[in-house]
Amino acid sequence: MSKRAMKNYETSQRPAKESKKHWSLGLLESMKDPDSIYKETDRLVVIRDKYPKARIHYLVLPKEEISSIFKLNKTHLDLIDELGSMYKSIKNDHTESDLVAGFHAIPSMQRLHMHVISKDMDSKCLKTKIHWNSFTTSFFIPFDDLLKKLEQDGCIERISNETHKALMSTPLKCNQCSFEPKNMPQLKQHLLSHVK
DNA sequence: GTTCTAGAAC
DNA sequence: GTTCTAGAAC
Fold it and tell me: Which of A3, A23, A40, A172 has CA atoms 20 to 30 A from the CA of A165?
């Protein structure tokens, strides 16, 4: 290969720094990807979670540029109401499954998003204690709770780092019975007993 | 958010 | 020796 060819090869194969987008912007990409979209309305997009933590796991996002729950105020109550309607709609699509809807108290990904997830929590993508505790402790803010909070206080306040740390350190406990597994593999094995 | 992997836990 | 967890990623 000539020096010129080598240089062309290097510059074409190496990803340009400018094209690398931070992982926290991933949902904005998924919202534009037809393969990720489950359904869509004038104001909302529903996508399949890229790393589903249960057999059914959707994210409901507004098209409006709202970065997170911390940007919400009372002017958004009608939008939140639409999220609730979409939750109902998705439940109608999956009458065989037990679905819950809610928000993470500290989201990692940009763009306000509501999780709609089945209680089975049976998924190869569910791997860590943090995954588990983010859906099964009060780190998970149920839809109704967020709606009430917004109606009453006009905003959603950030939890402290100490509270965050404590919630993520909560000992493992089954979300469907009182079983307390010793570790994640044991929890995942146990969860199968509730679905099969 | 995930991936990778060192070293803790068993 | 193997399984499992938890912290760095420039």
Answer: A23
